[in-house]
Amino acid sequence: MTLSTDVDNLEFDDDGPSIDREGSWYDTAAKVVAHAILLFMSAVAVFPFVWAFLTSLKPEDKIFTTITQIIPTDPTLINYVNMWLQNPLDRWVLNSLVLAVGVVFFTLLLDTLAGYALAKGDFKGKSIIYTLVIGTLVIPPQVVLVPLYLEMTMLNWSNTYWAIMVLYIANPFGTFMMRQFFLGVPDSLIEAARMDGCSTFQIYTRIMLPLAKPALSSLGVFTFIFVWGSFLWPLIILNDAAMFPLQVGIGLLTGRYSSQWGQLLAAVIIAALPVMVAYLLAQRTFMKGIALSGGKG
After folding, report:
1. Segment 128-157, tens digit of pLDDT
2. Confidence of residue 96 (pLDDT cuts 50, 70, 90)
3. Is the pTM of this model over 0.90?
4. CA 206 to CA 123: how far, in whole Å?
5. Residue 89: which of 278, 275, 270, 230 has the closest Cα?
6. CA distances from 146 to 141, 159, 233, 234 (A)
7. Measured between alpha carbons, how far is 230 from 169 in angstroms, rounded to an integer?
8. How far apart are CA 225 and CA 242, in angstroms?
9. Contact 228, 19 (CB under 8 A)
10. Rounded to whole angstroms, how far apart are CA atoms 228 and 249?
11. Chain centroid offset of residue 23 CA
12. Helix (H) or strand (E) segment spanning residue 80
């Protein structure tokens, strides 16, 4: 009997020859295990939202009596109707949209300018400024709430949209993200634009911003999600219920002794819809922007 060995599948290392397992049962098993873990973790992440949505379709008196029954036997939209009729839900949603869209606009504008200057600019103290920007990432926002509240009071900005937005615009994470992206743009492209007579601002608007669409999309989604879910600072700086964003309004639904859990879950589902829409609209460039923003240090 003659034994034959496929020489092409042999690899030599320090310990001797080894068989290349690419395309073998080992790779197949590894892929199956990896997909099983991803499916399990996805199910764990999605289950609370599915449970909240299905529970919001139950009448208020059956939420806890049928808590182990996930799928309602008699689904109803009464919680959504009561949530809309008994609370200024439209005003809360509008306030959150105004804040989120405003912060996204100023964040994309200021962070791209700062990121471009720190990536391609040539001026004294650039490394020190960048170090200070990165250093602010380790400072919890709660640390500056009291001095910021006093500052907003001195400026007569308390109970205004500007008081909420000033805490979130021009955030250091966005500056870092845009700097990382602009570092990946070849300097030869900028030099060619200068030879064609473009000014620094023209290079920024006509070359850098069009190239940065994936990074802008990712930063916009991150910022929108963060501002849409903000709760503590709006709760502190606002005292007019008509200006409450959606998250603060949802917090008002929880009472000291009892809560309208059906309406609360309905409001949570409504609050999650704009975030999912924002991600779906930007999903084509979202992951690409994350990958391109981490290219260089």
Report:
1. 999 998 888 888 888 888 888 998 999 898
2. very high
3. no
4. 22
5. 270
6. 10, 15, 10, 13
7. 13
8. 22
9. no
10. 12
11. 37
12. helix 78-86
